[in-house]
Amino acid sequence: KSALKDESASNKEKMDKKPAVNIPVQRLPEMQESRLKLPILSEEQFVMETINENMVTIICGETGSGKTTQVPQFLYEAGYAHTNGIIAVTEPRRVAAISMSNRVAKELNLSEREVSYQIRYEGNVTPDTKIKFMTDGVLLKEVQKDFLLTKYSVVIIDEAHERSVYTDILIGLLSRIVPLRNKQGNRLKLIIMSATLRVEDFTENRRLFKIEPPVVKVESRQFPVTIHFNKRTPLEDYLGEAFKKVCKIHRTLPEGGILVFVTGQQEVHTLCKKLRQTFPFEGKVEPKSKKSRRKKKENKTEILPKINLDNYSIEPVDEEAEREADDSDQEIEDNFMEGDDEDVHPQLSEDLQTGGTTEPLYVLPLYSLLSKEKQSKVFDPPPEGCRLCVVATNVAETSLTIPDIKYVVDTGKVKTKFYDKVTGVSTFKITWTSKASGNQRAGRAGRTGPGHCYRLYSSAVYNDDFEKFSLAEIIRRPVDDLVLQMKYMNIDRIVNFPFPTPPDDEQVKTAEKLLVSLGALTEPIKSVRMKDLKKTPITKITPLGKVMACFPVSPRYAKMLALGHQHDLLSYVVAIVAGLSVQEVFVEIQKPPDTDKEQDDFRSQIQYMSQVKKLWAGTGHSMLLGDLMVLLKAIGSAEYQGCTLEFCQKHGLRYKAMKEVRKLRAQLTNTVNMVIPDANICLDPKLKPPSDIQAKLIRQIILAGLADHVARRFPDPPPDADETLKKRKHAYQCTELDEPVFIHPYSVLYKQKPEFIVYQHIEETSKLYMKGISAIESEWLPVYAPSFCTLSKPQEDPPPFYDKSKDQIRCHMTSTFGRCCWEVPSVDL
Ligand code: ADP
Ligand code: MG
Questions:
Q1: With a 6 A CB cut-off, is 196 part of the ligand 1 pocket?
Q2: Which residue minimizes the CA distance to atom 20 of ligand 1?
Q3: Residue 443 near ligand 1, beta carbon < 6 Å
Q4: Comparing C-alpha atoms, which of 423, 428, 473, 413 is closest to residue 92?
Q5: What is the DSSP letter of 791?
Q6: Structure letter (DSSP) for residue 545
Q7: Is 66 in the pocket of ligand 1 (CB under 6 A)?
Q8: Which of 125, 237, 460, 515 allows an S-S link to 116, with CB 3.0 to 4.6 Å?
Q9: What is the pLDDT of residue 18?
């Protein structure tokens, strides 16, 4: 047992195990009552003793046992926010950081001045803050500025089981910071909290913690959950199977909420819609007949928005068309979101009822891109006399606990993004989830009473095909941003870093290569120190890299920001980078339509969006900036209109994403002003569209950032071409892949097909598609992407000559680009 004790605990520390003060808290009675029900509350004394006696403590317990909301309160009451710093709590998800800080403030009866949050671009931290919730990325940035984290007395790393990359790195860093702080006598406690999933990565890894940290297990009152496996595993239609299962539960089983796990937003919507059609929850909606009549009429009107490109202002569109746009957008964003009106009493539409159900089904979607307000609906009790059914993605697995779930329907599937380590091509694959997460999902049914979990797969599949645990994120994604951040902290030998799960060498090498080519790292250099002479050469951060590391965006985009200073382009580059860094700014319609009417809606929606995009793309250099010009104009016009919900819905923009873009723009503007001398840009809500010449310069900056993402169109195959050549019709060759790649049909340059382009990323669906396309000129390659060009020997014709005006010898050289050795125009150097 003594091995578990704090190794360096001096006598003094042993004496002051308990912080001197006990901070009084006046909780509201109803809050006190609800927290008393949480399993962790009976463990308070043991939890606090363990924390007091150890440098590092691991707390693990079922989701919903009260870790996130209660442990910060225990520490607060024990005086940890009043001695040598404040309490930090990190969350991998932004939603969690915000909602948990609100919740804890409420429970402690304190204001948000004292229990605050900080996420990538917003926060409410004040000098009075005592408990600070933040995303793991935010704390990582703070480590770069103040390695010893002197502001804090405790750091809680929450949701460690999610194994997000930043959480992993933070744990690695903190394993070194904690002993350093203790040596200084200014102790720092580290608490790692996790659901009951694989803690061995933290406890048994001796490179990480020299002494095995104690694990406090919170026994929660988990009620028994009966697991029902399917006899056979449905091969494809797991969504249909899930639908049938929910219907059966609802029609035949006693009351109790249903939670269904599917893989993505689209599936959530499809299933919600089907369920709502089957068990209509009639709210204050127009009678069906009237609504469909109106719709028919609207379908006939032409819906061309009129956008004045000089100042982005939108001229009023005719009323009918406007309503159409609103309607159809509503369908994509909300897909029949109902039950918004609290004063409506739900009625049962009897004609659609077939079974013995006596109560309506109150269906709610839940996924991470859903707005905060809609997400929080799942915490409220369903309307009187209704059964709750939440159709959710993985978010409901551990980070949010939905009350009163009795039945879980588990498709067993999960959608994960995979990257090819070498090429960076990303694919979303739907795979079996892991045993650990299957059990976690089942556990959701036993929070308030005995429950049932219906697994839509057989026990044989579970036993044979499910991995034990899900993979840590770090081995599934490129690590270029991470390597840059670590080099910035002078952690030069990445392989020696105590990662809980180390990324593989190939990944690190690819990242370093990219960073060298972007100019953020030097070429590998040999150390001159005697003791290091035998070690492999290392790359070091360059001055450009240091600037790039200050921006909280991918290194490719950071390079654009670092270059955007020239020619007053920074405001545009900031806007574009903000747009590129936020997920899914445009509403993307992929829904496979089932009925004729839906197909019509679907088509008119696509047409409408492509008209809007075309208008935004404009002509000349503006048009050649392609999808990035569309993005810039979308952001510019939305800002011009005050970024309203109406505007976003009408123009196919995701409202939540646009609000994020706005915040990120503000943050990047601040950072740019801080790190680039004389940048002096302001956040202009009325950013004028760039001129033609500016658009051209922006294209060059985009190329400098995306230099490794250049693609060139294959020549059109001749009529008698063989199969391989025929496949190259309209295809492109990019520098890293052998297979042909294509411009995504939603790109504004889809028809144009310029010879040379840069792309934001490649996604593999039915083909390899490039997204986020801008056209470039081949003669720019040697200038803006020099590290990818190979220059010839100086040419004899014309011979090198002395250029008096520049006082240097100039010569003419030819160059080739990239692995494919494309010949690009010659340059004078
Ligand atoms: P854990 O971190 O162990 O998963 P939490 O501390 O997040 O547990 O949750 C404890 C309880 O608090 C849960 O039952 C959850 O439903 C409830 N809870 C959390 N946030 C809210 C909220 N915003 N409103 C109401 N209840 C909440
Ligand atoms: Mg939690």
A1: no
A2: 103
A3: no
A4: 473
A5: E
A6: H
A7: yes
A8: 125
A9: 52
Q: What are phi and psi of 390, to 5 degrees?
A: -105, 125
Of 146, 103, 154, 147, the residue nearest 130 (C-alpha): 154
**Is the CB of residue 816 less than 8 Å from the CB of residue 789?**
yes
Least confident of 123-132, 139-148, 467-476, 570-579: 467-476
Output the CA 63–ligand 2 centroid distance in Å: 6
Could you tell me the distance, in angstroms and rounded to a whole number, from the CA of residue 99 to the centre of ligand 2?
11
Q: What is the DSSP letter of 595?
A: S
Amino acid at 762: I
Question: Which residue, by CA, sits nearest to atom 25 of ligand 1?
Answer: 379
Contacts of 715 (CB under 8 A, 6+ apart): none
DSSP 8-state code for residue 18? S
Q: Which residues of 774-812 are buried (b: 16+ CB within 10 A; e: fewer)?
A: bbbbeebbbebbeebbeeeeeeeeeeeeeeeeeeeeebb
**Mean of pLDDT values over 165-183:** 94
Instruction: Establish whether residue 194 lines the binding site of ligand 1, counting it when its CB lies within 6 angstroms of any ligand atom.
Output: no
Residue 39 near ligand 1, beta carbon < 6 Å:
no
pLDDT tens sequence across 592-635 = 556 777 777 777 777 888 888 888 888 888 889 999 999 999 99
Helix (H) or strand (E) holding 89: strand 86-91
* Closest residue by CA, ligand 1 atom 7: 68
What is the DSSP secondary structure assignment for residue 586, as one 8-state letter?
A: B
Say if residue 823's pLDDT is above 80: no
Tell me, what's the ipTM?
A: 0.98
The CB of 65 under 6 Å from ligand 1? The reply is yes
Q: What is the pTM of this model?
A: 0.72
- Give the percent of the chain with pLDDT over 70: 83
724: pLDDT confidence band, cut at 50, 70 and 90?
confident
Segment (H or E) for 480: helix 480-488
Atom in ligand 1 nearest the alpha carbon of residue 447: 14
Tokens for 266, please give them. Answer: 């689209």
How much helix, strand and coil, in percent to the nearest 5, is found in the chain? 40, 20, 40
Encode burial over 417-444: b for 16+ CB neighbours within 10 A, e otherwise: eebebebbbbeeeebbbbebbbbbbbbb
User: Cα(64) to centroid of ligand 2, in Å?
Assistant: 7
How far does the centroid of ligand 1 lie from the alpha carbon of residue 407, in Å? 19
Q: Which ligand is nearest to the CA of 61?
A: 1
395 CA distance to ligand 2 centroid (A)?
A: 12
Judge whether 285 and 330 are in contact, CB under 8 Å. no
158 Cα nearest atom in ligand 1: 2
d(CA 28, CA 491): 48
Question: How far, in Å, is the centroid of ligand 2 from the Cα of 256?
Answer: 23
Going by the DSSP 8-state scheme, the letter that residue 521 receives in this structure is B
- Sign of the four-CA dihedral 633, 634, 637, 639: negative
- Give me the sign of the Cα torsion angle 98, 100, 101, 107: positive
- Ligand 2 mean position to 748 CA, how many Å? 43
Ligand 2 centroid vs 65 CA: distance in angstroms?
A: 8
* Structural contact between residues 672 and 568, judged by C-beta atoms closer than 8 angstroms: no
> Which of the four pLDDT bands, split at 50, 70 and 90, describes residue 720?
confident
Residues with CB under 5 A from ligand 2 (ion): 68
Q: Whose CA is nearest to atom 13 of ligand 1?
A: 64
Per-residue buried b or exposed e for 185-223, using 16+ beta carbons within 10 Å of the residue's own CB: eebbbbbbbbbbbbbebbbebeebbeeebbbbebebebe
Q: Are 714 and 726 in contact (CB under 8 A)?
A: no
DSSP state at residue 211: S
Which regions of 635-778 does DSSP assign to beta strands (E)?
A: 710-713, 732-734, 742-743, 756-764, 768-775
Query: Kindly report the CA angle at 623 between 617 and 626, in degrees rounded to 5?
Result: 75
